Amino acid sequence: MKFTNTRQAMAWLHTWLGLILGFVLMVCFFFGALSVFDREIDRWAIPETRFDPQPMPSFDNLLINVFERSEPDVDEYNLMMPQFHNPAAGEMTPRTELPADEYWAYTTHRDPVLLMGIGFRVPHPLKPDEHNHIHGSMTIDPRSGDNIPSSSLKIGSDWFYPLHYSLNLNWNYIGFFIVGIAAFFMLVALVSGVWIHRRIFREFFTFRKEKSIRRATLDLHNMSGVVALPFHFFFALTGLIIFAGFYYLPVTNTMLKPLHNMHEAIESEATGLPHERSGINASLASVDAMVGEAKSRWAARDMAGEVGFLMVHHVGDKNSYVSIYRAGSDRVSLVGEGIHFKGTTGEVLREDPPHSTAEGIAEFLTGLHLQHFEHWFLRWLYVLGGLLGCVCIATGFIFFTEKRKQQHAKNNSQGSRIVDAFAVTTVTGIVVAAVTMLAANRILPGDLANKGDWEKWIFCIALALSFIHATIRSAPVARGEKNPAWLEQCLLLVLLPVIAVIANWLTTGDHLLKTMFTDPYWAVAGVDLSLLALAVICWRVAQRLRMNSPSALVAKSDIAYDS
Description:
The chain is α+β, with helices and mostly antiparallel strands. Among the domains are: 53-151 and 272-360, no CATH class; 414-563, no CATH class. The protein contains 19 helices and 7 strands. A hairpin with a 5-residue loop joins strand 6 (335-342) and strand 7. The longest helix has 35 residues, at 376-410. Mean pLDDT is 89; it is low at 553-563.
């Protein structure tokens, strides 16, 4: 294809990158925006967790009991144990007899519940020099130590949140790579978009809603892209940086792995933190005393705070040590100021030194992307930035089809029809799926076996039905007209959020008057209010779509003719 100038080439690149990858980016932006309040959505989805955030509980009196009664994950054991075990050493160790090798617990200022995990070692590993662990995890009520039922799906943090960076396609990390490719080319699309729109400052203030659909849509596309341009660029870039070392450039899983293992051993020797087990059994000293010492040392450095992350390495061994990290709710970095104690005596082995400049920048960018610090106004700005990204992508889809569907209709082409069906699914379909999942969460019985799996399937089925509906109803697009699916799915989004709010009230008793006034609990009230706001917005959009429908336009022309 020949272009007369660079701007024309950039326009072609911008258009097709947006069309091909916009569907993935829409999922990233929408569910990324929801993930800003993932913990609050969890509280709405699991009524048993609707209590105030809790500090890290006592290890000696509560956590150790939870760890000791926990077991390895059944699915991971069945999948990974045959790969880790050395058959020449005898039969595989039964799942419930695997010895614990590491404990960890994590919480934030927004978490009433406590997330805990265990790494169980394989007694006779096939490759002794590698990390051979079968894991187990659980979520508990830190007030009592009771497990939150594993069938209860944390919709916010275990479904919406990973959806925005992995599409929940975890086989061979394929979802991570798809999102990574989309994020990289999004940076290209942003640069090409800036190149195309030379009068970028003027477009910041330009929105001619009274003009034609194409003109108004393009203005809104430009305006939403320009307003949130730094946000879009920053999050695409930092998302790539965060996952580069884990998935995109997995050094530890390549031919460099021996070098990586050597580096870990050298680092262990330099820091004084044992890299391997000694093989000599030993008991664990009081971890609560270590926590008290860590807090005293933080306070002495004028940075008093709570424990955010706690980990016990080499459990039950003479070389065990305990790492305690300060919660990062008052700063950008997630956790830090690590202090490491000898597990058998409780003496301090090491206090992490200040980060180098490069490490500090990496921690800052990671923390700014994940936004676990306590700043509610900025959190809402993150939501606004994510939704502006959704508007930018949605208007790009609409402009593409509006610009081409008349010509496609003349040529009897189905191209616009296909793009429009995908656009409907991507714009309204993912919202329908998300709200349907929330409504199903409150409607399905709480004691239903594998309830979380049912909710996941309902999400996927709702999304698939949205696409089927949009495809079936897209016939008018081939004639140069609008797809009725836009209006119909908007009307559905007026009904579904109201159903979800009412279902939450009927099943838990937590209506808005209670959660806002008599017994305030803003995590639940915020989700209910957001659902009702969605219903109002979709009603307004449906009204506009109905006014611009072919039948409405015909009726207007008849009235004008009669008068």
